Amino acid sequence: MSAGRITESMTGRRLLADLNASTGLVSKYQRQISSGRRMEKPSDDPLATHTAMRLRSELQGLANDRRSISDAKGWLDTTEAALGSITEVVHRTNELALQGSNGTMAQKDRNKIADEIDQLIETAKSAANASYGGRFVFSGTDTDQQPYTVGGPDAWNGDTGGAIYRTVGAGQTITVNVRGEDVLGSGGADGKLLSTMRDLAANLRSGNLAAIRANDISALQTNLEEVTSARGIVGALTTRIESANDRLAQIEEDTTGLLSEAEDTDIAKALIQLTTQQSVYQAALKSGQTLIQPSLLDFIR
């Protein structure tokens, strides 16, 4: 059987197909460079598309965890600031207790000290009414309820239910709340700070110096230890979430890099491919000039 004859028409059609293919590749690499995206549709690279979807899901989870950490950090910072104010109240109350226990002080001066302690009680309750994002941080789980009534009874109005948790990583949660009842107490004879301060004010007004020296001053030291312990817990939690945030930030950076490798255009590589295809296109045009009549070449151009 004799070989088929290659006609000028067949050559022209093949040249047109090659030129169209080359033009398509030039256009493809131009779009990749201008958009910064390597893939225009999933079928361009199914494996990379699947990888990109998984990485995006991981990044969303990381973003959620970091938002939770940010909320926890704000909550703990608010708690620490309030506990700092309460610590100052305890120190001032202790100074006043020592002054008032001096037997040479006139009773009218002890009454003035008692009045100041009354004001310090309200200051402590005001500090414990601190809120973050519209939520009271010392109210237990009932964060819409103001924990203490300033100018009113010393009862704690919070919820004795469970703790408030925040997620700080995959399967990791921390407790972020300190209950006001555990620091200031709820009035009455519970031995907490408000109770101690009320007893101290009453003993100052009655001139019961023995009770101040034997009970109130030592009770204040115990209350100070309780506040300090709460601050220590808050500080440790703050350190933990800061460490978790740093760890998640590194994971997020690494994951973003992997996503970029899967989706983004390698500009240097794309420029080389674009230049190569442009050269191929120009070479095909020149080659066609030697094979096809000028009229057809003109038509192509």
TrEMBL record:
**Ranges of residues in domain Flagellin C-terminal:** 219-285
SUPFAM superfamilies noted in UniProt: Phase 1 flagellin
Entries under Pfam families matching the protein: Flagellin_C, Flagellin_N
In the record, what terms sit under GO molecular function? structural molecule activity
Keyword Disulfide bond appears in the UniProt entry: no
Compartmental location: Bacterial flagellum
Q: Which InterPro entries match?
A: Flagell_FlgL (IPR013384), Flagellin (IPR001492), Flagellin_C (IPR046358), Flagellin_N (IPR001029)
Coiled-coil-forming residues are: 234-261
Arranged from A to Z, the UniProt key words for this protein are:
Bacterial flagellum, Cell projection, Cilium, Coiled coil, Flagellum
| Record keyword Coiled coil present | yes
A GO BP entry is: bacterial-type flagellum-dependent cell motility
Cellular component annotations (GO), alphabetically ordered: bacterial-type flagellum hook
Q: Please report the stretch or stretches of sequence annotated as the Flagellin N-terminal domain.
A: 17-143
Domain of life the protein comes from: Bacteria
Q: Which family does it belong to?
A: Belongs to the bacterial flagellin family.
Q: By what name is this protein known? A: Flagellar hook-associated protein FlgL
- Protein source organism: uncultured Solirubrobacteraceae bacterium
The taxonomic lineage of its organism, from the top, reads: Bacteria, Bacillati, Actinomycetota, Thermoleophilia, Solirubrobacterales
